[in-house]
Fold this protein.
Amino acid sequence: MRKLLVTGAAGFIGSNFVHYWHQSNPEDRLVVLDALTYAGNRANLSACEGAGWYAFVQGSICDQGLVEGLLREHEIDTLVHFAAESHVDRSITGPDAFIETNIVGTHTLLKCAKKVWLDEGMQSEHLFHHVSTDEVYGTLGPWDPAFSESTPYAPNSPYAASKAASDHLVRSYHHTYGLNVTTSNCSNNYGPYHFPEKLIPLCLLNILMGESLPIYGDGKQIRDWLFVDDHARGIELIIRNGRRGETYNIGGNNEWANIDVVKLLCSIVDQRFADNPRLSGRFPDSPCASATPAGSLIAYVEDRPGHDTRYAINAEKIMTELGYQPVEDFESGLNKTVNWYLANEAWWQSILNGSTRS
Ligand SMILES: NC(=O)c1ccc[n+]([C@@H]2O[C@H](COP(=O)([O-])OP(=O)(O)OC[C@H]3O[C@@H](n4cnc5c(N)ncnc54)[C@H](O)[C@@H]3O)[C@@H](O)[C@H]2O)c1
């Protein structure tokens, strides 16, 4: 039985990870730590409340005393670190919070893990798994090979730079102090519980409410998209069998231009309204309610500064070493995502109304 501390577990990927992990490892115990910043939403974990295997702690990864206490009290052997400031646009308007949480916060966790696991000798079989992003590698031209684990770091936004710094700190604690660490660098995730300011949920909800679908620049920026449970599956494999001190790229082999993502989403929602006339009653402001294609809402807006043109992940290492394969293709994953948002209107309405922001 493992005892996990999951940071940032009330966020998009962290909460999906907690649900995924409990389903596949019901005997394990999970303590989750989240500061409930703007993206942290305790409602993402409401299904776990009261369960014996689960404990929620509201607090910051920058609070050394709190984190050390949790590691000791719950005899944590595995720390899975998702907590971050994660929105690139926000890192452009306010980078300070990204330095504080992503760099100082990660370093605080490393100090706590070293002190409790190594200096106090509490866990010989410990692991610090750090969740990072493919954005640390910078941007690719159309014909460049995809990012591999040996691609030099070249972050272009304050978000990517802060994640890059945290990756280096994690690596250094392995080489300097012998802390057992692994790192994963993942491509763009999508799926349930995705905060509505990100591309896919933003466009989906705007279609339902009849608002425009803002596309940066020409919409030709290419991203690799991975269904969030496939990310959790990759992290699980690394925690179980990944070589300590190593980094693994996790990707979906699923490159799409942003504009094509939005067009595919539009066609799925068009079809959903055609199949289910009750949706027109629920969302009368949507163009789909009057059989107008959702694509009519697409509106091109000024590009973001420093916008990377292409990310692509070479996930061969995790595939060959650990047998990783994503389960969802883009269409099946997007259909699941649309189903989840249609079935969970109360969740996203409360975020849009501001009632879950802190
Ligand atoms: N979203 C993606 O597509 C993607 C892709 C690759 C990697 N990642 C990485 O995955 C991780 C999770 O991303 P996400 O999309 O779920 O982000 P998110 O913003 O939805 O979740 C981040 C969580 O961290 C919490 N948090 C922020 N500051 C904190 C602090 N000081 N102490 C404790 N908790 C704090 C927030 O409350 C929130 O619940 C991040 O590290 C991100 O860099 C994300």
